[in-house]
Amino acid sequence: MHHHQVTLSFFVAFSIISLFVTYKISGYGPLDVTNTKVCSGNGKIYADRPNVCDCYNCFDGPACENVTPNCIINDIGGNPELHQQYWETNYDAISKSSIMVRSDYRTGYEHASHMIYEDDTKNTWSTITPEINKAIRQLHKQVKNAEVDGYSIVLGTGGTGVITAAIWALTQIANNKEPTRVFARTPFFGAYRNWANLYPTVTHWNASYDQQDFQDNLIEFITSPNNPTGKVDWEPHYKQGKLQVHDMVYYWPSLTDTSKYPPLNKDIMVFSLSKLTGHAGTRFGWALVKDKKVAEKMSEFITRVQVHTSIDAQFRALTVIKHLIGTQGDVFFNFIKTSLQSRWKRILELFEKPVMKKHFAVESEPDQFYLWIKCINVDQPCYILMAKNGLLGWDGNDFGSPVGQYVRLEMVVRDSVFEILLIRLEEIGNKLETKK
Ligand SMILES: Cc1ncc(COP(=O)(O)O)c(C=O)c1O
Ligand SMILES: *[C@@H]1O[C@H](CO)[C@@H](O)[C@H](O)[C@H]1NC(C)=O
C-alpha cells in the first residue's frame, strides 16, 4: 500500500516534470491558444487534447508544418473559422469567464430559458435569462439592425432550432387542413427545403413562383443578406403572405452596413451566434418575435423537442455578446469586415484573369460570407469539376439552382487555408485551359 503510494506520487511528479519539460522545449502550454506560432500557425491546441496539434484543413505533421499533398480543400460549410482568429487575439480579455464554466454552474433545469417576454428584463428570478435578454437587446440597439422593443425573444439550438420552431408555430397559426407550403426565392439556403420536408403531412417545400392562390397557407423565408448570394432584399415574393420568417443571421455590420436601413421590424427575425461571432459549435440562436402568441407556440415547440437551450451554451453566448457590447463590437465587426474585404479583393482580381473569366462568373456580392460561382464553358457539373481538382464546394443544385451550373464556396476559412484556396482556384482555371 505504502509502496504503491510512493510509486504513484513519484509517477505523478515525474509526469508533471516531463510535461513541463515538453512545454519548455516546444515553447507552448496546453491552453496557450493565443500564440499563433503554435502548430506553425496552421493548427490549434485545445484543452481537451493538450498535447496534440489540431491541424487546419490541408495541413498535417505533428506541428502542422506540412501542406498535405493533393489534399482536398473542404470549403463546403459555412464554418466561420475566420472569426476564431479574432477570439484568439481577444482570448485574454474574456477567458476568465468564458472558457471555464464551473462544474457547479446552474446544474438544474432552467425551465424559463427558452422564451423571454420583453418585460422579463425586470424579472429578478435567479436564472441566466434576464442577463441574456438584456445583452441581446442591447446589442441590437447598438448595431440598429433590428427593433427589439415590444418583441419577445425565443432561444434555440442555433438558428436551426428557432427556424424549425417557427415553421411549426406558423403551421399551428395557419390551422389549415392542407399541409403548409414553405417557400423561399431561388437560390435559397437548402436547409429550408430539408426542414420543410421533414413532416410531409404538416409542411412541404415548394419553390414555385406561382403559388398566389395559397398565400394564407404558405410560409416564406426572406434571407437577407442571402445565402448564397449575399444580396440584401427585404421584399417578400408573396406580398399578401402573412406567414413570414426573416432569416437575418448575416445581417450584422461585419457584412452589411446596417445603418443604411432603419432597424427592421419584421414579424419573426432570426439570428444566430454561428454567423455573428463564429461560435457555430455552441449551437445558440434566437428569434425576435412580434406576436406573443407566435412566440409562445415557438417556445412550446422548443420545450417539447429539447426542454430548453443548454445553459452552458447560453453562458458562452452571454460572454461573447457582452464582449461585443460597447466599442469592442466595432473592433470585432471591423476585423471581420476588413479581413473579408482584403480576401475579396484578391478573389476578384483572380477571377479577372482571362483564363478564369472564360470559365467562371462570380455572382455573389463582394465582402460576404460566400462565393457563388457560375461555371461557363465547362463540360461537367461545376462542383464535380472543382471536387475532382481538390476543392470541395457545395453543389449549387442544393440551393435550387439549375443542375451543374453553380457552386458555393465559403470565404471565412482560416488565413492559411485561404492561401491554399486561392492557389487551388487558379490551378483549376489553368487546367481547363491546357486541356483545350
Ligand atoms: C441563412 C441561414 N440561416 C440559418 C443558418 C443556421 O445556422 P445555425 O443553426 O448554425 O445557427 C444558416 C447556416 O448556415 C444560414 O446560412
Ligand atoms: C408547387 O406549387 C405549384 C402551384 O400550386 C404546383 O403547380 C406544383 O405542382 C407544386 N410543386 C410541388 C413540388 O409540390
Automatic annotation (TrEMBL):
Pfam families referenced in this protein's UniProt entry, alphabetically: Alliinase_C
Residue ranges annotated for the Alliinase C-terminal domain, each copy included: 77-428
UniProt KW Phosphoprotein keyword: no
Keyword Cell membrane among UniProt keywords: no
CDD domains per UniProt: AAT_like
GO biological process: amino acid metabolic process
Keywords: Aminotransferase, Membrane, Pyridoxal phosphate, Transferase, Transmembrane, Transmembrane helix
Membrane-traversing stretches: 6-23
InterPro entries: Alliinase_C (IPR006948), Alliinase_N_sf (IPR037029), Ethylene_sulfur-biosynth (IPR050478), PyrdxlP-dep_Trfase (IPR015424), PyrdxlP-dep_Trfase_major (IPR015421), PyrdxlP-dep_Trfase_small (IPR015422)
A GO MF term: transaminase activity
Lineage top rank: taxon: Eukaryota
Record family assignment: Belongs to the alliinase family.
Protein name: Tryptophan aminotransferase-related protein
